[in-house]
Amino acid sequence: MKQFSLLIALSLFCYAVNGQNQIVDPVTFNYSKVDSIALKFPKKKFKSYTEIVAPLTDSLKTDHEKARVIFRWITENIKYSFGNKSTDADKVVKDEKAVCIGYSTLFKEMCNSAGIECEIIEGYTKTTINDIDKKLKKVDHAWNAVKLYGKWYLVDVTWATSYFDEKKRKMVKDYDELYYLTPPGIFVKKHFPKDKKWQLLDSPMTKSEFVKPFVYYEGFFKDSITALQPNNGAIHMKLKDTLIVKFFTKIEPAEVIIELGNNQFAYSPKIYSTGEYYFIKQKFDRAGDYKMTLYSDGEDIAAYKLYIKE
Length: 310
Description:
This protein has 9 helices and 21 strands. It is α+β, with helices and mostly antiparallel strands. It folds into 2 domains: about 15-210, Roll (C8orf32 fold); about 220-310, Sandwich (Immunoglobulin-like). Strands 12, 14, 16, 17, 20 and 21 form a 6-stranded mixed sheet that branches. Helix 4 (about 90-95) links the parallel strand 3 and strand 4. The longest helix is centred in the first third of the chain and has 15 residues, at about 65-75. The N and C termini lie far apart (about 45 Å).
């Protein structure tokens, strides 16, 4: 199970506990007790989400805890399945399966039932090098925005539940904390809403700014990389040129792999360092289309596509 600690402080709110005001940040709040309620909730077949909401949330007094227990119940009990594309929340509960629209619909309906405002957001994603410079025509994903104490927060229940394994070509169940109340500046690296207001940014990103950069993976945020250059995800070079990639981080990148085609040939550049600045230099002895992936501490950081010509 992946653990991810979000260190960016967002707005605080106060609520009363035993007559005293407590200051709480929904992002950094310790949800361990709340999660235990969701994980220990009775395992049985339910016919409707309304059967679940009340007993799941009754012991909780605050909206951020209720939203969290709903989120964790869904990630624990609903399996990703390409075969169940239903937008009916009750059918998702009955079948215990869903795709993104089913996950986001169920989260919205359960939150609304608990008195929490929640919306479904549709848009585009960027998860592989094939998404670099792609045309954003048809939406390919759905997620949520949940309102807690007058402020909107972003949630992707689907990606918190499972990830797509490119090699196995299937979804793999693996809980990821990153996608609960994710800071907008991080969320927009991989999610581009159809309606720009749901970026929740003071200065919304354009489509070009979304599709052109390299692909961000979870390790990029976990390892607190402050900059990676070049920014463009598609790099065009000639054989006589030297590829230079720079990292700025306090955690040493572990490995860089550059693969030609379907791993027909690979380079493993040496990583050099100067303080918090790391870099690689690589020359190529054969032309072709390459995928370059950066790794650190066992996790993917980022990926580029390289076009090397004679």
